[in-house]
Amino acid sequence: MSGANENDPNVGDVPDDTMNSPKAENTEAGLAVARKWQKGAPPRISSATTVTRKIQNPNAEALGSSKAANPTPACGRKSRQVTYLKDEARVSALTAELKSALEKACATAEKLEESKKECKLLRNQVTVLQKDLNETQDFVFSLQRREKTITEADAAAEFHSLCLTVEDWVQTQLTKAFDSKSIKATRPDPRIRKFLSLIPQPGKEAFEYPDTDEYNVIAAIMKFLYLEILAKDFYCPIERGFMNFLNSIERSMGNLEPRRDLVTLRTWRCETLTAVTQRPEFVQFRHKQGKTLSNDLANMLSLFQPRSDISGFTRLVQSTIIEPALQLAHKMHLSVHEFSLRYTSYHSTKSEERHPLRREWSQFDCVSLSPPGKVQRPPIADVIFTYLFDLSPELVFRAVKADSFAEPRVLKRGRVLVAVTPEEHGPYTRPLSRPKDSPTLLGFMAEINHAKPSDSRSFMPAEVTGTED
């Protein structure tokens, strides 16, 4: 075999310039080809190389036949083989890159499809949520009050104005009666008994202190407004049993599941009462209530106006005192938040249960008995404040939170009558020896109220000018 190869004219040593070619040295495929050529066996071209060659050059078979007819030098063949191997490697690399790009494209397409599905799902959710939001907004807006509610500042201002109005009215309309100690009754009278029921124990003890009539009447009127209007669940009677029914419904709502919070309960209550006030019948109820209260108060106060026109006096009481109180109560009772009136802790105590005003009494407006009407606020050095009785309650506000009331805040201070004495004289006390005649008109009224009809006139002072016929 070696001899045949040696004699074969087509087989020979690989030229030195081919072996020493930089391309052949740097290419592993070129070295393999060179080794085969040295061994005398022509290199085989793989099927992939053949296919690649056909793709790259469709006339390869024709060229091969021509090459067979016209053989080329060995150096050219080897160089072409190296080039083919490089092209094959390049094609393989490009094929791998193409495959990787196709895989990435497929993955991207899958992600895009998933994103489209997710986007569609999110659009549907947005549509549902937008619908729910619109319904919630409609519900929330339906809970909001259509009627303007009273503010804290407005409530404080109106209550302060009411207190001043009562004080001014008493001073202008009844001062003459206090000075002359004249009343229209000389025997036990239901009006006296009803009026004295408005005066608590401290006020009755003050009957023995001179110059306390005016303040006691002011306090009695404020107590009347407190009991009959301002401190009620609702200031105007509607129908018998209505408020009890409303309160029972509110308690039942508080026990429902899911549980209703305090804001919901208070809002429902106020909306219900607001709807009731819009009924045509309510105008009649309120008008009747105003007339009834005006007649009651004017009838009691007419004791101090023996010669007044009772109908005109009643209209004056209604327009000056009753109507402002009804309007204030209407606004406060229809508020979601709570407005309330509160007297001092001494309001119903006896003298032995009370002590001189301490530092905490600075939260009240203390009206001095002497000098009369001067407002002072303890503590003041070297003087003692002695409590006599409450003139008007304080206005307290509690805002409604989610499920509770906030801490109470005083919007207007309460007013109390005090006696101011020097510290060396000690607290103000009642006279030890009782005078023959009471120093106050209300003291005479109290004596008349407890007297027998046969001797009631003996308790009237000489200055009395009005008598019953």
From TrEMBL:
Entry keywords, A to Z: Coiled coil
Biased composition (Polar residues): 46-59
Coiled-coil residue spans: 95-132
Stretch list, region Disordered: 1-79
UniProt superkingdom: Eukaryota
UniProt name for this protein: Uncharacterized protein
Organism: Hyaloscypha bicolor E
Lineage: Eukaryota, Fungi, Dikarya, Ascomycota, Pezizomycotina
